[in-house]
Structure formats: structure tokens, C-alpha cells
Design a protein that fits this description.
CATH architecture of the largest domain in chain B: Orthogonal Bundle
CATH class of chain A: Mainly Alpha
Oligomer: heterodimer
Number of domains of chain B: 2
CATH superfamily of chain A: MetI-like
CATH topology of the largest domain in chain B: MetI-like fold
Shape of chain B: flat
Number of strands of chain A: 0
CATH topology of chain A: MetI-like fold
Distance between the termini of chain B: 25 Å
Number of helices of chain A: 13
Radius of gyration of chain A: 25 Å
Shape of chain A: globular
Largest interface: A-B, 112 and 106 residues
Largest sheet of chain B: none
CATH superfamily of the largest domain in chain B: MetI-like
Radius of gyration of chain B: 25 Å
Structural class of chain B: mainly alpha
Number of strands of chain B: 0
Strand content of chain A: under 5%
Structural class of chain A: mainly alpha
Number of helices of chain B: 16
CATH architecture of chain A: Orthogonal Bundle
């Protein structure tokens, strides 16, 4: 008995030892920063001189901060356009390639390639793609007699440019998620529907689409969280402009914190954004948990 | 490319079997459609590749020249001599590679402990890590800078963490915060859970130490998981932009993404070198993908399904 206890104690000690590096880094770079973020959001910390408690002043200020709310409206617009197109394109691609024909895997690989690019590199390429005079997009539009817009430098099309680029970058991986979802739709549903004489469209409307609802929900939530955290694309492709129409919350917080050094106020802004993200994360966690428990 | 196969035979309706002509037409239409989409998806790559090898006068001409006969390497030379691109490339490689090594080691070490060893705080600590996955990076961004600046005895700091810059403007400021990512721990734990426990008990009876059991017996069994995790960590490290931009001020320490962004900002009309630089920044991940495709796909399935 005593030796078993000793063995167990030794095992437990080794367990703690094994997780020490992880937990130490976790404490320093996660726990302390989260607590500090909350504290900083009640101060006027600016790195150089001041670090005083200002109470709810920062939060009061951000209620009247029209630029902050504009950035939220910007990403809302982004999400409203991006999410449906993202679903439509990735689902169509997945359904198109959910076959076992020769070459299908090669096509999947091709559609997946854009997701490998970094946002910075992709945006650099798209600056040139969307060049008003010599860019590929307007060049191709001119074949059909359309004079394309100035894309990134026009208020009407700047956000559309970011959406186009991000769609190109992300439909490939969402296609893979949808392919996995399509695999989960039981075959007998289609078989019995066919026996009852259901059309292809009816099969999609009454079987595929409802069966894929959890996948669609997950893909959308992930896209919304992505929208709320949008930064790289806006920073490189449009620099937040013109007239702030592509400025995102993260972009604003970055500027407030690191260019203007108002870190206290920026922390308060970050907290508001975090709450918005958290709501969607919780929804997505509920969803995935319902499907498969992870703990 | 076998590994991308997540399909299953779909029902072929008897109608179509009777009509080979119609089936052939449908087949041709299918491949035509797939090819058109593939071309569209590939166009930005082709466009940047073409531009990076085209002389300037062909670049700025309309209508578009889809092929060029005057291949030139001048843009690549330009990109690499105007700014120290090879240095940026190296910096990014060092950061991404150390991220991979540390995450694989710490991730599997604690993943193993959470999956296989009994200790009182096992569940609570693991739950805490899981919950933290929901904290968006933006919340910790500003205070993390504060923490990095005030790491004691580093970068000219005294024992109480003041006086110097701490780990700011140092590679450690990027490597350490990401050295044991929660996702890595979680991912490895899930994999260790699938391995049987009896090997461990046998080894203990033989008098094998706990670390040796982990290192010699269990870790070698997780090679596929390590490969997937390694690729994903490398991709994330290589492509990351905002955090390195905040931490690193010294231009000589810039990463390739930072260098590329600065280049496209400062030389706004030099599209040739810009495209050359973008392709160089994309290339390592592309090569990695083509070599290790199946691990990529496993990774997406995992992160996609489990959130």
C-alpha cells in the first residue's frame, strides 16, 4: 500500500513538473495580461508619464466615440456581405467536388491554395490586381466594356475590395469543412427521397441544407469572429481608408494604443471588442459541444 | 493528393446509365466548370508571377499581356537589394522554426501530462487553458507589451523589471508568449488520449523513469500529430504580422511580412519587386503544403470541427 501511494505521489509530482513550463508561460502571458487589461482600462496609462486611476472615464468616453462605432459598423457591413457569399461559394464548391471522379482531388488542392497565403502577401498581390488602370480586374472588366472603379481608393468599393480578397483567401478551407459536413449526411435519406421521386433541388432544399445547418452555423460564426478581428488586410490593402470606411476595431485599437500611446483608453476599447467576440465564441462553443464533447 | 479524398460514391440514377451521351456531356460540363473555377482561383498567383517576370513597360500597358517573352529577373534583384529581403526571410524562418520546436516540445509534454498522468489539478488546469482559448488576442495585446517591457533582468531591466526595454524589440518577445500555445497542448492531449495506458504500466514495472516513458515510448507514436501541429504552427508563425510589428522596432529584426508591408507602403508603384517579394513570402508555405499535404487536411478537419 505504502509503495503504491509513493508511486502515485511520484507520478503526480512528475505531472506538475511536465506542465510547469506551459503553466508558467500561461500565467505570465495570459493571466497577468488579462487582469492587467481590465485594470488598464480604468487608467490613463500612456507608457511615458501617467498611470492614474480614472474610474469609468474611459468607458464614458467610448460611448461617445463615433470613430469606434464607425469601425464596428464597417465590420458589420463586411460581415453582412462576406458571410452569405462565403457560405454560398464554399458550399457550391464542396457540392461540386463531393464526388469520386478522377481529378477531383487535384481541383480541391487548387481551390485550397489561396488559403496558404499570408494576409499581407495576399493584400500586396491584390493591390496590384485592383489597380485602377493596369490591374487584372479592371483589365478584364474592360473586355466587356465596363470601366472598373478605383477599388481601394473609392469609399464605395474599398470594403468590397477587402471582401473580394478575403473570399478568395478563405473559401478553400471552408470548402473542406463543408466537404466533411457533406460526408456526414446519411445516404439513405437521398435514396428514399429519390424513391419518392424528389427532384435534385428538392433533395438539396429538404435534405442537404437542413443536414448541413450546424456546419453552416459554424462557418458563419467563425467568419463573424474573423470579421471582428480583421486587421492585416485593412492595414495593407487600404490603410483603413478612404475616409475610415475600412478602419476596423483592431486597427483603431492598434493606433490608439501604439501610435497615440493612449493605452488605458485603448484597453477599454479592446474590452468592448472582446465582449462582442466572446458572445460569438460562446455560441460556437455551445454548437461544437452539442455535436461532440471535448472534455 | 489521395489524402484530400473525403468523398464517397454518390448514387448514380438509373436514368443516366441509360443515356451515355447525356452522361458524357454532363462530365464535360463538370470538368469545364471545375477548370474555370480553378483558373479563377489561380489567377492572382499567375498574375503576380507574370508581373514579377515582366519588364516594366509591359506591365503598364493595356490590354493585358497574358504572356511575356522578355523574362527578366530584375524585379527579384531589385526586391532583394532595395531592402534586405533575405535577412527578413531568415528572421521569419528563425521565429517560425523556434515556435514549432518549442510548441512541439512543451505542447506534447503537457499534453501528455494532462492525458496520461494523475494529479489533483489536472482537470482544473486543463479547463482553465480551454477557457483561455476564448480570450481574443486583442485583449492581451496591450498588457503583453507592458509585461514584456518589465521582465526582470532582461534587456537592461533591474530585478524589479524597470530601467530597460525588457524583451521588447527582441525575438524572445515573440517566441516566449507563443512558446506553449494552448491549442498545441489541447491538440496533443487529444492525441495522447487515444493511446493505450498499458505500455506505461509495463515500462514502470521495468523501472523506467516518467520522462523516459514520455520521450522514448509515447512521443514517437505521435509523429503524425506532431507533423500536423508543426505545419500549422509554422504557417501561423510565418504569416503572423501584427504582433511582430508591435514588438520589433529595429528594421534589422523585421520579419518577411513586415518587410513586405513596408515595401509596398514605401515603394507604391514598384509593382514588379512587390510581386516578387509577395511570392517569396508565400513560397515556403506553398512548398510545405505540396510536400506534406495530408497533414494539412487533417489539421483543418480537426480545427474546423472542434472549433
Amino acid at each position: 500500500m505504502a509503495s503504491i501511494n509513493k508511486l502515485e505521489r511520484h507520478q503526480a509530482r512528475m505531472g506538475y513538473l511536465f506542465i510547469t513550463p506551459t503553466m508558467l508561460l500561461f500565467a505570465v502571458f495570459m493571466v497577468i495580461p488579462v487582469v492587467m487589461a481590465l485594470y488598464l482600462s480604468f487608467t490613463n496609462y500612456d507608457v511615458l508619464s501617467t498611470n492614474d486611476w480614472v474610474g469609468l472615464e474611459n468607458y464614458r468616453r467610448l460611448i461617445g466615440d463615433t470613430l469606434l462605432w464607425q469601425t464596428f459598423v464597417n465590420v458589420l457591413f463586411y460581415a453582412v456581405v462576406f458571410v452569405p457569399f462565403n457560405i454560398l461559394i464554399s458550399l457550391l464548391l464542396a457540392m461540386l467536388l463531393n464526388k469520386s471522379k478522377g481529378g477531383v482531388k487535384l481541383f480541391r488542392t487548387f481551390y485550397y491554395l489561396p488559403t496558404l497565403t499570408s494576409a499581407v502577401a495576399a493584400a500586396t498581390v491584390w493591390i496590384w490586381m485592383l489597380h485602377p488602370e493596369y490591374g487584372l480586374i479592371n483589365g478584364m472588366l474592360s473586355y466587356v466594356g465596363i470601366a472598373g472603379p478605383a477599388w481601394v481608393s473609392q469609399t464605395e468599393t474599398a470594403m468590397i475590395s477587402i471582401i473580394l480578397m478575403t473570399l478568395w483567401q478563405s473559401v478553400g478551407s471552408n470548402m473542406i469543412i463543408y466537404l466533411a459536413g457533406l460526408q456526414g449526411v446519411p445516404d439513405y435519406l437521398y435514396e428514399s427521397a429519390r424513391l419518392d421521386g424528389a427532384s435534385r433541388f428538392a433533395c438539396f432544399r429538404y435534405i442537404t441544407w437542413p443536414q448541413l445547418r450546424p456546419t453552416t452555423f459554424l462557418v458563419s460564426i467563425l467568419a463573424i469572429i474573423g470579421a471582428l478581428q480583421l486587421f492585416d488586410q485593412a492595414f495593407v490593402l487600404t490603410q483603413g481608408g478612404p475616409a475610415n470606411v475600412t478602419k476596423t476595431p483592431v486597427y483603431l485599437i492598434y493606433q490608439q494604443g501604439f501610435n497615440q500611446l493612449q493605452m488605458g483608453y485603448a484597453s477599454a476599447q479592446a474590452f468592448v471588442l472582446a465582449m462582442a467576440i466572446l458572445i460569438f465564441s460562446l455560441i460556437s462553443m455551445k454548437l461544437t459541444k452539442a455535436e461532440e464533447p471535448i472534455v | 493528393m489521395r489524402e484530400m479524398g473525403v468523398t464517397r460514391e454518390k448514387h448514380i440514377s438509373p436514368m443516366k446509365l441509360g443515356l451515355p451521351v447525356r452522361k458524357r456531356t454532363l462530365n464535360i460540363l463538370f470538368y469545364l466548370l471545375c477548370s474555370i473555377i480553378a483558373i479563377i482561383m489561380f489567377l492572382p498567383f499567375y498574375w503576380s508571377l507574370l508581373t514579377s517576370f515582366k519588364p516594366d513597360e509591359e506591365m503598364f500597358s493595356m490590354p493585358i499581356k497574358w504572356v511575356t517573352t522578355n523574362l527578366t529577373f530584375e524585379h527579384y534583384l531589385n526586391a532583394f537589394t532595395t531592402v534586405p529581403f533575405s535577412l527578413y526571410f531568415w528572421n521569419s524562418f528563425v521565429l517560425a522554426a523556434s515556435g514549432v520546436l518549442l510548441n512541439l516540445f512543451f505542447g506534447s509534454l503537457s499534453g501528455y501530462a494532462f492525458a496520461k498522468l494523475n494529479f489533483k489539478m489536472n482537470q482544473p488546469f486543463f479547463r482553465l487553458l480551454l477557457v483561455s482559448m476564448m480570450v481574443p488576442g486583442i485583449v492581451t495585446m496591450i498588457p503583453s507589451v507592458y509585461v514584456l517591457r518589465h521582465i526582470p533582468l532582461m534587456g537592461g531591466n533591474d530585478l524589479f523589471g524597470s530601467g530597460g526595454y525588457g524583451l521588447m524589440n527582441s525575438f524572445w518577445g515573440i517566441i516566449l508568449p507563443g512558446a506553449s500555445g494552448t491549442f498545441a497542448v489541447f491538440f496533443m492531449r487529444q492525441f495522447f488520449l487515444t493511446l493505450p495506458k498499458d505500455m506505461m504500466e509495463m515500462a514502470r514495472i521495468e523501472g523506467c523513469g516518467e520522462f523516459k516513458i514520455f520521450w522514448r515510448i509515447y512521443l514517437p507514436l505521435t509523429k503524425p500529430a506532431l507533423a500536423t501541429l508543426g505545419i500549422f504552427t509554422f504557417q501561423a508563425g510565418w504569416n503572423s504580422f501584427l504582433w511582430p510589428m508591435i514588438v520589433l522596432n529595429d528594421p534589422a529584426k523585421a520579419t518577411i511580412q513586415m518587410g513586405l508591408q513596408a515595401f509596398s507602403y514605401n515603394y507604391q508603384t514598384d509593382y514588379g519587386p512587390m510581386m516578387a517579394g509577395a511570392l517569396v513570402a508565400i513560397l515556403p508555405i506553398l512548398v510545405l503544403f505540396l510536400l506534406l499535404q495530408r497533414y494539412f487536411i487533417q489539421g483543418i478537419a480537426f480545427s474546423g470541427i472542434k472549433g
